[in-house]
Automatic annotation (TrEMBL):
It comes from the Bacteria. This is Antibiotic biosynthesis monooxygenase.
Length: 204
């Protein structure tokens, strides 16, 4: 199980989207060499906005990654690819369905984030941990992570082989249960971002 993660968002310079995607794909061999990086996903959020979500065995592995070759390459090429500084958030992984290597790539994903009402953090965390059981019954949810960000938000990041699998998850048990408790637990409307997966590292 992973215990630590990173959520990095970046805005491509207009017209350099293809170069950003090529750069992200080129990072996979570097990440494959990192034993402490348990999973790594490069994604596109929308027009010109990209990101990386990755998980680690522990905080030490995360800090090692932040000083490693991918981070160095991001710093070296950032001025030529991105029009603003990278937005980096450290996250705690509360529960996960870890990815395994499979013969087809994941192409779609979801990032869901929300803030709990004050005093309801424990209920939210317990729900997210318990949700793992439901997700384990979804064969086409390839990987799933319940998160707590350093700014007090909670969320879920998960990936799928195609649109059909993502839709099945979106109408499945976890979203329905979350909606059932939204009025009492949540202090903000959940933000749901549908992402496309550009590259990934699965497993260790």
């Amino acid at each position: 199980m992973a215990s630590s993660g990173l959520l990095i968002r970046m805005d491509a310079i207009h017209g350099k989207e293809r170069e950003v995607e090529q750069f992200l794909r080129s990072a996979v061999p570097l990440v494959e060499e990192e034993i402490g990086t348990t999973s790594w996903f490069a994604v596109r959020f929308g027009r010109g906005e990209y990101g990386i979500f990755d998980t680690f065995l522990d905080d030490a592995a995360r800090e090692e990654h932040l000083a490693g070759p991918v981070a160095v390459a991001l710093r070296e090429h950032g001025d030529n690819l991105f029009d603003s500084p990278l937005r980096i958030q450290r996250v705690e992984v509360l529960a996960d369905k870890m990815p395994v290597t499979h013969p087809f790539p994941d192409t779609k994903g979801i990032l869901l984030t929300f803030k709990p009402k004050s005093g309801h953090e424990k209920e939210v965390e317990e729900f997210l941990v318990d949700a793992r059981r439901m997700v384990m019954e979804e064969p086409n949810t390839a990987a799933w992570f319940a998160l707590k960000t350093e700014n007090g938000e909670y969320g879920i990041f998960d990936v799928f082989p195609d649109n059909g699998a993502r839709f099945v998850h979106l109408v499945g048990h976890v979203p329905r249960e979350l909606a059932k408790h939204a009025m009492s637990w949540l202090g903000s409307v959940p933000e749901v971002e549908l992402v496309s997966v550009q590259a990934e590292k699965l497993g260790v």
